[in-house]
Amino acid sequence: MQFADRLKNVETSAIRELFKLLGKPGIISFAGGFPDPALFDAEGIAQASQAVLTHNPGPVLQYGATEGYQPLREGISTFMEGKGSSVRPEGLIVTTGSQQALDLIGKTMISPGDKVIVEAPTFLATIQCFRLYGAHIIGAPIDADGVDVDKLEALIEEHKPKLVYLIPTFGNPSGATLSLARRQRILEIAVRTQTLVVEDDPYGELYFDQAPPPSLLALSDGVPGSRDWLAHCGSFSKILSPGLRVGWLVAPPALLANATMCKQFSDAHTSNLTQAICAHYLTMNRLDATLAVVRRTYAERARVMAESLRRELGDAIAFNQPRGGMFFWARLTGANGKGSHAPDFAKRAIDQGVAFVPGAPFFAHDPDLSTLRLSFATADVAKIEEGIGRLAQAL
Ligand code: PMP
Predict the structure, then answer these.
(1) Is the minimum distance from the CB of 123 to ligand 1 under 6 angstroms?
(2) Measured between alpha carbons, how far is 192 from 238 in angstroms, rounded to an integer?
(3) Separation between Cα atoms, residue 254 and residue 379, nearest integer Å
(4) Whose CA is nearest to atom 8 of ligand 1?
(5) Less Cβ around it within 10 Å: N or C end of the chain?
(6) Where exactly are the structural domains of the chain?
(7) Would the pTM of this model clear 0.90, i.e. be above it?
(8) Atom 7 of ligand 1 has which residue's CA nearest to it?
(9) Are β-strands 146-147 and 247-250 bridged in parallel, bridged antiparallel, or unpaired?
(10) Is the pLDDT of residue 142 over 90?
(11) DSSP tag of 35
């Protein structure tokens, strides 16, 4: 069969191949970006489901508006306001996970050959999705404070990209958080160079002790003109449940209108039932309590993972210390500090019954083969200690 040319731009990710091995019995996985199912507020979601199906079955089981279920748009607007972002319900659309928001941005903004700047490393599915639309992707270096803004500015000047994609808070895979000063500068650069900045923010609520700096969206009110150059993707996946598939997109009106048009041809609308469940859940005043448990649990797991890594692997591994999110980004230091080969290490680790994701696929180009990503979200503390012990064996 002759498939579309655009498929030549992408390949099945190395990570998917690795995930096939995760079914092995007894394996401890630090590989996925999955929230711990034990932390889902199933009781609250069941109550919300019952309520919407009892009191409002017609509309929630019917076709709905492409822009989203209006009570949820209002609920998200209020939720965002609580985080310092003023967004009217009409200023956002509901999407089928934030993954769809990224796809709609790709579809509406990227023509074959267009340049896009991302962090190096960044979320693999975004690289793949933008490549499907023919993007030429350029990586901007990051450090513990997020993307290096001087280098980013120079890359923008040089390449005049169609857009810049950033995960400013608790990045996937980097765990890094962009400093407040850098956030301000990015908004100013967006306005000055008239470059669309896409802020992907699924992890911002998952902080351990201290809230991160305000999102670019929240800060944009203080930088005249920046709202015209900013899109923001949000999601219930990491704070409530990824299976509900509910996210949202905030964007300038023309971009939002085009994204809505494309969504219409794609899935018509996000499930009304799961949207209504989310909307009702937001009115139940359970989210704060749910999030408090998630934050506390992930903070404890991150602490245990850091301690275990230091104890069991010592100088063989260097890693960041995230202040939230779900990931450690690490580097195998190897002999002479040259770095050892993480993909080989991943195979040996699977043999020992533990899995992680090698870092290379998260780079759009020039991958650092000594890097890897470890998720501390899914496994409990005992499994983390056991798994890191197995990693040490593999090493
Ligand atoms: N962006 C980032 C950075 C992610 O890590 C993920 C999920 N792992 C997504 C977007 C997509 O999430 P969802 O579609 O479930 O909202």
Answers:
(1) yes
(2) 34
(3) 43
(4) 33
(5) N
(6) 5-41+289-394, 42-283
(7) yes
(8) 33
(9) unpaired
(10) yes
(11) P
Ligand 1: which of 16, 19, 98, 124 to mutate, most ligand atoms within 8 Å of CB? 98
Q: What whole-number percentage of the chain has pLDDT above 90? A: 92
Assigned CATH class of 42-283:
alpha beta
The answer to whether the CB of 247 is under 6 A from ligand 1 is yes
Determine the Cα–Cα distance for residues 173 and 341; give it in Å rounded to an integer: 18
The residue among 235, 175, 237, 200 whose CA lies nearest residue 37 is 237
- Before 25, cis peptide (omega within 30)? no
Q: What is the mean pLDDT of the chain?
A: 95
Task: Please tell me if the CB atom of residue 202 comes closer than 6 angstroms to any atom of ligand 1.
Answer: yes
Ligand 1, residue 101: give the atom nearest the CA: 14
Query: Would you call 173 exposed, middle or buried from its count of C-beta atoms within 10 A (0-12, 13-18, 19+)?
Result: buried
CA 232/CA 253 separation, integer angstroms? 13
Proportion of the chain above pLDDT 70, given as a percent: 97
Q: What is the pLDDT of residue 20?
A: 72
The helix (H) or strand (E) run that includes residue 237 is none
Give pLDDT, residue 339: 73
Quick one: 5-41+289-394 is in which CATH superfamily? Aspartate Aminotransferase, domain 1 (3.90.1150.10)
Report the alpha-carbon angle 27-292-183, nearest 5. Answer: 90
Ligand 1 atom closest to Cα of 167?
3
